[in-house]
Amino acid sequence: MKQYLLPQTERIYKANMHTHTVCSDGDFTPEEIKARYKAHGYQIMAFSDHDFCFPQSALNDEDFLALTSYEVAINEHNPRSPYDKCYHLNLFARDPENTKIVCFDPVYGAGKLRKEPDLQGQLDLWSTEDREYSVDYVNHLVEEAQKAGFFVSYNHPTWSQQHYPDYIGLKGIWGIEVFNSDCAQGGFGEDDVRPFEDLLKAGTKVFPLATDDVHTAKDAFSGWIMVAAKSLAYGDVISALEHGDFYASCGPEIRSLTIEDGILRITCSPCRHICVSTEFRCAFRAQAPEGELLTEAEFDLHRWYDLCAPGKEATAYFRVSLFGADGKNAYSRPYYREEVEGQF
Ligand SMILES: [Zn+2]
Ligand SMILES: [Zn+2]
Q1: What integer pLDDT is reported at residue 230 of this predicted model?
Q2: I need a surface site. Which of 34, 150, 252, 284 has the fewest CB within 10 A?
Q3: C-alpha 121 – ligand 2 centre gap (Å)
Q4: The domain 7-249 is classified under which CATH number: 3.20.20.140, 3.40.640.10, 3.30.200.20, 2.60.120.600?
């Protein structure tokens, strides 16, 4: 029987998972962000200002949902140095009213607290400590965030000047940015797919995110995720996100993604080519004939299934990338062998 890898829901919702407002260093108020993004067909915005949690639930309406989140930074040395590495993580709250600040380090909130001393008294501190630049410390922070009711994305590794040793040991992260508009606009590369791929190959289950990281008008409307949630209720959106019922895109649209008897089928907006990659040397590609574009493709995944060594089933995956004619791409999450076992 046909299995829908991307659930067939009544609607699929467009979301930006990384947003700054005047509450930190963004140019727009939350109300302006809502108006601009709604006008561009978005229904979901994660408001992720720096270091402090400002829920924007008052903006919710029948066609708009604000997700409660914030972005934490962990700097190596001096954030003003051009060589300074950092980890930036978005914490997304499972409960919209959750404003707990995980591992609060006053150094990171100093400027804001100087300007708004009243904030200090309102902080809902989960824990306070000096943040430290190390994989172990980040793993500790992610664990604390999970205990406090959040799931965590790992943001813009390229802008953060990070490479393999900085991220390969990360544990418990839910998502990773494969595209960040603000960083792309700054010249830091159009995509961050390599760290995503490296983590998957290391056996870390993580979902791809394309985001705007919007601070100014130039960042807006370039990277998003499409979420196949049952409804726009906060709980339904969170459960779709946590389950990975979404894909990341800068343009192409995945209309359906199914598997039946080992055959992966995809229908999509017109694309130049479509690739399926896996955790080992086994990949597939469908290419549009000269002068044409693809709106569907089929891949027989038996070769992938058969190559998977016994004992490796839990980390054996395939994932789909769509390449648009305009150079814009889209990425599915990894689908694991154990999820599709019944189709072979
Ligand atoms: Zn950041
Ligand atoms: Zn940011």
Answers
A1: 98
A2: 284
A3: 25
A4: 3.20.20.140
